[in-house]
Amino acid sequence: MSSIEKLLKAKIPCKETGIEIRHTMCDICTPGPQCGVDAYVKDGKIIKIEGTENYPTNRGALCTKGASGRQFVYREDRIRYPMKRVGERGDGRYERISWEEALSLIAEGLKESKEKWGPEGTAFITGYPKWYRPWLQRFCYSFGSPNYLTESSACHSAGAMSYRLICGWEMSEDLKGMPDLYVGWGNNSMVSTFPRGRGLVEYKEKGGKAVIIDTRLSPTAIQCADLFIRPKAGTDAYLANTIAAILIKNDWIDQGFIDQYVFGFEEYKKMVLEYTVEEAEKITHVPQDQIYTLAEMIGKAKTVLIAPSTGVTHHINGLLTHNAIVALNVLKGCVGKKGTLMPIFETFLEMGAGFPSHEHEFINETRREGMPPKIGTDRFPVWSEMINQGQAMDLTRQIITADPYPIRSLYGHGVNVMMYPDSDKFVETLKTLDFIVAVDIFMTDFCQIADVVLPACTSYERSEVKCYGGGFINYTSPAIEPLYESKDDVTIISEVARALDLDDELLKGGYDQCAKYIFRDLPVDLDEVKAKHLPVQIQIDPPKNYFDLKLETPSGKIELYSNTIAKYEQSHGLDPLPEYQNGDGEGDFADYPMTLMLGSRQANAIHSRLHALSWPRSLRPDPMVQINPDDADKYGLKQGDDLYLVTVQGRIKVKADVTNVSNMGELNFFHGYSEANANSLLQDTFLDPYSGFPGYKQVRCRVEKA
Predict the structure, then answer these.
(1) Which residues pair with 181 in a beta bridge?
(2) Strand partners, 602
(3) CATH class entry, domain 3-73
(4) CA 33, 39, 40: angle at the middle one, nearest 5?
(5) DSSP letters of 220-242?
(6) What pLDDT band is residue 322 in, cutting at 50, 70 and 90?
(7) Is pTM beyond 0.70 here?
(8) What topology does CATH give the domain 83-154+349-537?
(9) Cα 581 vs. chain centroid, distance in angstroms?
C-alpha cells in the first residue's frame, strides 16, 4: 500500500489526499446546544465527522445522534426535488416539478385560501429543526395570519410558562454556581442533552450533592444520584407540596426573602399545610422516611437548586406540578442568586449569550393589530397570554368545528404528525383541508398528505447564525453544497414570500440580510464572524441582577399565588395555587390497571428523526416497552416477547423489555417508531387545561400477551 493510500485510508486531511476539514454544526436535536462538528470533506462529499475541539457546547464530543450525522445527510429517502400531488390526498402519488412551478402552485393555493377564508384561515406550522423559526413566524404575520404553531406546543414552553408565571422571567439552572444541593426533578440529561449531563457529572466531581427524582431508574439517576426518589407517575405535585409543608413547619425557609419579594405566601402556606406525610406515602408511594430525608436535605442546604424537567409538564396536571416544584426554590430564597435559578436573557433562538439582539422585533414588526384570536385562545387562555404562538394541540378541534373560524390550509416545515395525540385522527382531519404545503428533508407522513412538497437541506448544507452562553456567536458556512435540488428553509420561505409578493422586503431579501438586521448592534460584523469558521467570543457586560429587574408578573413580585391564572379561575376552573390534581388518563382501573408513560428520550434517537438510520437503529432495533419483572411474570412475559399495549384509544404491538427501570404497575415506551406509534394510544382531548400539553406520561393501559 502506497503512502497516499495509507493517508486516504486513515482519512488524513492534507494536500496529498484532497481531504479538508470544514467546520459546521449538528442540528439533529435542536435548538439548545447544537454541537460543533468537523466535517471531513473529499470531492464535495462528507467522509467522516468528529466533534469540534473547544466548541462552547460539546467541547469536541458528539453523542450517538450527532455521530450519525453522515448517515443522516446521505439517507436514501431524501426528498430530492419539488413535487406535486397527482393522486388522492394520502395515497402517496406525486410527480416531479420545477421550483418555478412549485412556487407558483404555492402562491396560487395560499392566495386562493386567503381570498376565500381570510389570512387567518391559513396556519403556519413547524416541527424540527428550529433554526428558521423567526423567519417562519414573521412570514406568518406578513401573510396576515395569527396562527403560527410549533412543536413547542408539547415541548419546553410549559416550563417557560411556569417560570414566567411565578418568577416573572424564564429561568435556568446555575449548576456551575455550585449549589450545596442539586435536585433534578425528572432530570435525565445524561440521555436527553448530553452537554448538560456532563455538567452534572462535573458538579458531582467537584463535590456537589445530587438528588434525582424520577419514576424511572434513569441513567442519570444511576450515575449521579446521592439520593434517588421514585414517586408514582403524576404524583410529583403532592410530593413537592408535602416537602413545602415540612420546610414551613420546621422553619427551614427564608422568611425575610419571602416577606420582601414574594406575593401570595399566606394563601400558599394555608394550602400546603393541609398535605401530610402519611397521605403523601399513600399517594406517591415514596416512603415517609425518604420524604423526611429529602425535606431535611433541602431545608438545611444554604443554597439549593431544584430543577424540574420538561417531562414534568407532560401530564394533564403538568403546569401546576411544575409550579409546585419551582415554589420550593422560592421558599428557600434560592432565586436569582449564584447556584440557584437564574433568569434567562434570550439572545437568539431561545439561547442566552449575554448580549441582546433584535430577534423579537424582527418577528413581530409585521404583525398587525386586530387579528382574530390565534388557535387555542379560548380553550387555553393562560397559554395564549403567556406564549406568542397558537396552541397546536387545538388545531384538530378547530379544523373540525370551524370554531371560532375555519382553518382551511397549512404551510408547514418539518412537521411530525406522530407528536400529536391521536395521530391517526390528526392525519385524517388534515386530509379534509383545501391546501397543504410540506417542506422537509425526508418524505414524512405529513409530506404524504401535502399538495406541494419541497426539499430542504441539512445543517451541513447551509449557513446559520448560532449564539451560546459566555458571549459566543457563530455563523457557519456550508460544509457541502445542498444535495440534489434541496434548499435551506429560510431560502424557501423567502422565495415563497416573493412568489406571494408580500409587503415585506426584508423577509424577501433572504437569510443573510435578515440576520444582519437582527444582529445590527453587535460590536463585530457578521461577515467577519462567518470568515472565522468558528465561534467568536464577544466582550459582554456582567449579567443583570435579578432583583433589579421589573418582574413581569401582575404584582411585580415572585408569585406563589398566580394572579394571571386567577383571572381564569371562574371562567375556566383554573387554580392559581399549585394544588395536586389527579392526572390519570381515561379508562376503568379494572380494565386498564397499568400506567403507560410515553415519550422518554433515548440515546439513539430524537423523536422519529433517526429511526431510519441503521447505525442508531441498531442500538434499539425494535419498539420495546420497559416493564418491571414482577409485572412481566404476572403477564407471563419474557424478554423480547410480543405484547399489545391497549388503551381506550387503541392498541399497538411491541416487544417486552423486562427491566427494573420501570416501577411496578408502570410501563415506559419510547416514541417515534412508525410501526408502533406511541401517540396513537393517546386521546386528543387528554390535555393540560393550563398549557394545552398532552398527558403523555400518565395514560391508563393494559397489557395483552400477543
Answers:
(1) 209, 304
(2) 605
(3) alpha beta
(4) 160
(5) HHHHH-SEEE-PPTT-HHHHHHH
(6) very high
(7) yes
(8) Rossmann fold (3.40.50)
(9) 24
